[in-house]
């Protein structure tokens, strides 16, 4: 019998993508979907692409409606999941796609988000290497509270951690510039997210060290062995509905060669089903990952500049959010880590 | 009586944009347009947007067809303009939109392009500050041979030169990641430039220090006062026809504040008609510059990362190519620098 | 001395485009821009592409602020311009970019819009042929109240009127399907207009005879000589910021040949500066008209189907709105009809 | 043990999509992929999105390489599959994604394609209603030669057949205007398919009754009961990689009401897994079908115009090509018709 699932905030893009993935997962059955303004609406009217779930109807986001399921996924605005989560039983598996339980430092929370701090949960980035050589996914085994990473964070962390972990990249003075699709910003009605504004345009946002994903990236890099990492991080909205293309640079340690660096990444991710390092000299495009729980990585070294250039492509809604949730859920429940997750992208 | 103009290679995107700008310039009259495979075709069949030039027909690209004009613009593939230019009279104003006459170092030419080196011409980036405090545009006065800069080069050079010139930015270990539209790659029939490949995707290219624009950027920064600049430079194709959004970072000198840095850029470009620094905390999008000879710059400082973040937006075909050519031409001929050039973008 | 202009509702897309065109018009000077929620804001903060108008600031949309100018342009939501217009002096030239003064039939107004009917003004589609052989532009000479047509209406009317006028096309059972950019829907915060929703998608709207542009199209066709025209009209939003590509069909009268039909269109528009009929067998794309006051028309005949197929491309914000306003204004004031208006598009 | 599959022409977009779908099909194993210029290349280098098939390498397209499989899919240019097919054993299931075996009329073939006529195969549009009340899918049971329909044909046929079959729509004087993504045109290197040309533009093509899909549509409508159907058919390329949004109109028979028409479509497709009729007043967008084998239909009636307006959305590469091939294959082999086929789209 499949696990029963409730999804809170299921009318947004992240919630919709959790639904899409769960609809094809053989061990999960979505029984309850909740929403705020869409409560009472048929799911198919809000997500007309999810034909296989046409039987569901949104109900209000209340603890009562979420209780009684094996699994609860929270796809709520930042700052709102802490209170809801506190109402759920300890043995229910709860996955929070929002930011509320990602940061281990209350000071970071206060500086970048503010409001009540709800502590941190097991963090859902399985492929992250730890300083001690272990794979981060180990912490998810048997977990009942999982914080799903931010989408940009996943791209940058996967791109930097192996090199820093192996001592091939300096851990300070990192840079990352990301071309990102607007679906990462959600279904919010903001002028800059209008099609007329973004079609034919590239828009930077949260420039200059103020983006909320920065402390989360640094937290991950410290897990991987960085001592006092710093990063200049800039996302740029571009006219594609989904996708992240992260251009990451880091100074290389003395004497490191391009071959050595590339080989380290290949070795690090050799056994991973969802993270793939391309052959030397090749770099990924986001189209290759659309709809898939796949992160693709290209690794190069610009000897003149003394910097490695690492390109990471992923789908912000899958490996960046919903796929990470399902992958973490698989581990937490002792299912095969890849169960139900797409590996092939939808291209062109 | 207007100056007579011939444009070689006028069937491509750069040539088309030179035509568009010249059609509205009060002192220029395009008399001859040449092409290779399109010789014999009506201009309006190749550039159906240029209704005001429907009377023109492409002829072969030969010295004979180009002679007898006051101005010749070369919009030819790299490596082909040197030979043609040698056939033109010394008192004709020749502007080369290709790379052949940009680099002052024969070694750079050999490393990044190869083939015969034709020397360097007066370089068409008027707003570049020189180490001695002068404006680069001075070198264009009375010039008869002008090398038009590369589009990415213009964005990065305008973004870095003021800070380096003023000693506020370190001149080594620079980084630039650019979201660029495919028109900069020309009308070439390449698979990665197909609409099916680029729609919904971000594609990096020339990653890892191999891009031909790198030596040209460093040459400009040295003009502005850099001693031994290095830069990690990565362009990413995104699905917008035109535009460059450059995300540039540089380490700041000790003690430099965000206010100080911003004020320096404001002061540097205060008298420029085509380069504008946005108020502190604001950053440009490419849509704001489409069709205009305008570069917009946002200047920030991430104190935690110790890096300035400078965002430059421009239209690769206008300020990045054709507008730069016309602006340089205006200076060279003693016309008002802004004559005939659009300042307002076409948005949304 | 230039004419002084005030623009009401200048913070939207239509208002922004009026500003862009007027900024380059030699006989106009925009002195006042009004807005609702943006009152008090600098124009450059709302329209960062309009660098040449950076000195302007939005004021409230009140009769007081609009009075005292030679020309007032109303770019307000439907249903709101009637009251404002009534407060303006009779000798002021008022152009309404909204729908309030387009329909000559009060019954049509009641059915498609509702609310108070304010009568109809001189209608700003100069190239429309009248049944009596005259050019519609004649009615604009000396006009002081001008209703600017709807953008879809302009495309369909220009595409059908010559054939109907000449008796070559049947005037009933017409069809039009339009691929349109979202800027025509304005800067409204609606979910379906979000970039995430429209990127990679084509969205029909107002299907089944309910679109408000239908009575206006039929009104124009009757002017051109149609007796009882009917049209099936369907717009489809596609992911381009601006542009209309209208695919129009009409049954041909008995014995009409493709050559005859094409020749009629060529002859009809032969003297027009802004409407161009392509050679037989060629059809326009919207890119060819971006930023220009140009409508391009391709004319074909499918003998098997017994229908003419007429393709019209134009820029909804220029020939579809702001350019039509300026063109009408030129006629009304006795200026050259083409003064200040761009003929060349911005492509690619 | 799964059926073994060879795919000829697997390096194109249609072939790639067949691969994507077959990779997730539980009863199929792709053993051989052939190509022309890509022979010798690793599949993952040509289709970097198909990570699960990274073990495959392209071989030459020869009868020898295709023999020895249970199933052969031909995704070859028009005119080239006839000769190859003749070399394959009769008991092999061969599916032709090209046009060579679609048309039952040699005269149609000669007029629209030309070259050798190879006869027609069982036609892979299962949901098409026949005049006798049967479902077209019946002809596929046990078939060993299947012609996969053209993508535009599928959209228009599914949209018109029920109404014509039921006598609610007139079968002559039909119109269809389609917004289509460029992937339907394949990976061909043509100037009009470049990203620079299509971004921000809508381009009509094959206007005026010359499109090769017209005889195939009429053939289908005759199957459904039409006597002498005629259609005006115009496709328009728009800037989305995949998707077809067909706007179809037909005159309604006397006295037909909107409710009656809608009810007929609902009833016709009530048992279909892949074709869905939306509630009255709602119309689909293409994003809802991306990656899915789903066609969505909206049905309206414009009483003033006397025409039904039927909107059909589907993914040209899935329900329009590769999904139709797999669905037909499932029927031919006696597998469940929906096996392995995605129903949910990837949106936004």
Protein model, in words:
The structure is a homotetramer of 348-residue chains. With 348 residues, the first copy, chain A, is of the alpha/beta class. The longest helix of chain A is centred in the C-terminal third of the chain and has 16 residues, at 318-333. Chain A has two domains: 3-149 and 318-333, Rossmann fold (3-Layer(aba) Sandwich); 151-314, Dihydrodipicolinate Reductase, domain 2, CATH 3.30.360. Chain A is globular, with a radius of gyration of 19 Å. Helix content of chain A is 25%, strand content 21%. The first copy, chain A, is built from ten helices and 14 strands. The model of chain A has no long low-confidence stretch (mean pLDDT 97). In chain A, helix 1 crosses helix 10 (318-333) and helix 6 packs parallel to helix 8. The first copy, chain A, has a seven-stranded parallel beta sheet, covered by helices on one side. The first copy, chain A, has helices at 13-23, 43-46, 63-66, 81-85, 106-112, 151-165, 195-198, 213-223, 258-268, 318-333, and strands spanning 3-8, 28-35, 58-60, 71-74, 93-96, 122-123, 145-147, 174-180, 203-204, 231-237, 244-251, 275-277, 295-302, 307-314. Chains in contact: A-B, A-C, A-D, B-C, B-D, C-D.
């Amino acid at each position: 019998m499949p696990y029963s699932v409730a999804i809170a905030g299921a009318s947004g893009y992240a919630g919709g993508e959790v639904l899409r993935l769960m609809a094809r997962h053989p061990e999960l059955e979505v029984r309850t979907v909740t929403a705020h303004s869409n409560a009472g609406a048929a799911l198919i009217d809000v997500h007309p692409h999810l034909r296989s779930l046409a039987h569901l109807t949104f109900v209000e986001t209340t603890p009562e409606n979420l209780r009684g399921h094996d699994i609860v996924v929270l796809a709520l605005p930042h700052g709102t999941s802490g209170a809801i989560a506190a109402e759920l039983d300890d043995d229910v598996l709860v996955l929070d796609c929002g930011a509320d339980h990602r940061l281990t430092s209350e000071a970071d929370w206060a500086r970048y988000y503010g409001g009540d701090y709800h502590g941190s949960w097991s963090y859902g980035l399985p492929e992250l290497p730890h300083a001690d050589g272990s794979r981060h996914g180990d912490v998810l085994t048997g977990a009942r509270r999982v914080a799903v990473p931010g989408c940009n964070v996943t791209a940058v962390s996967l791109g930097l951690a192996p090199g820093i972990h192996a001592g091939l990249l300096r851990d300070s003075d990192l840079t990352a510039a990301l071309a990102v699709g607007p679906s990462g910003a959600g279904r919010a009605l903001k002028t800059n997210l209008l099609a007329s504004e973004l079609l034919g345009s590239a828009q930077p946002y949260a420039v200059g060290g103020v983006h909320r994903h920065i402390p989360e990236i640094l937290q991950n890099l410290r897990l991987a062995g960085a001592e006092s990492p710093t990063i200049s991080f800039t996302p740029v909205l571009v006219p594609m509905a989904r996708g992240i293309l992260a251009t990451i640079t880091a100074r290389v340690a003395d004497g490191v060669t391009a071959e050595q660096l590339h080989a380290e990444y290949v070795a690090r991710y050799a056994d991973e089903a969802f993270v793939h390092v391309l052959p030397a000299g090749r770099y990924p495009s986001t189209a290759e990952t659309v709809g898939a729980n796949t992160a693709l990585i290209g690794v190069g070294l610009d000897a003149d500049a003394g910097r490695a250039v690492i390109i990471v492509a992923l789908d912000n809604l899958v490996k960046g959010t919903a796929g990470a949730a399902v992958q973490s859920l698989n581990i937490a429940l002792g299912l095969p880590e890849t169960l139900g997750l797409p590996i092939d992208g939808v291209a062109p």
